[in-house]
Amino acid sequence: MSEAQAPTKKKKKKARPTWLKVILAIIKGLRVPVLALLAIYAGLWIGYSKLGGQPPSEIFHISTWKHLYDLVFAS
Asked: What tens digit of pLDDT does each residue of 23-66 get?
C-alpha cells in the first residue's frame, strides 16, 4: 500500500472535565516556584548546617539573617 492509499488513523482525545483542566493548570504553574523554594531550602541547609556546623533550625530565625546582613553590609 502506498502512503496515499494508507488509511489515516486519527486518535480522538477524550475531553477532560473543566475541574481537571484547572487543577492541571495550577499544578503546572506552581511547579517552578515550588522547585525553586526547595532548591533554596536545600542550599541553606547544606551551607548553614552541614558546612557551617550550625543547627538547621536556625535557618528560619530572623536573628540569623539580621546578623548575616550586618556582616555583609557593615562599614
From this structure: 999 999 999 999 999 999 999 999 989 998 999 999 999 998 89
Q: Please report where in the chains the cell 539573617 appears, as a residue.
A: 65
> The whole model's pTM is what?
0.61
> What is the C-alpha separation between 32 and 9, in angstroms, rounded?
36
**Rounded distance, CA 33 to CA 23, Å?**
16
* 3-state secondary structure string across 19-67: HHHHHHHHHHHHHHHHHHHHHHHHHHHHHHHHHCCCCHHHHHCHHHHHH
Residue 3 has pLDDT above 70, yes or no: no
CB atoms within 10 A of CB 71: 8
Q: What is the CA radius of gyration of the chain?
A: 26
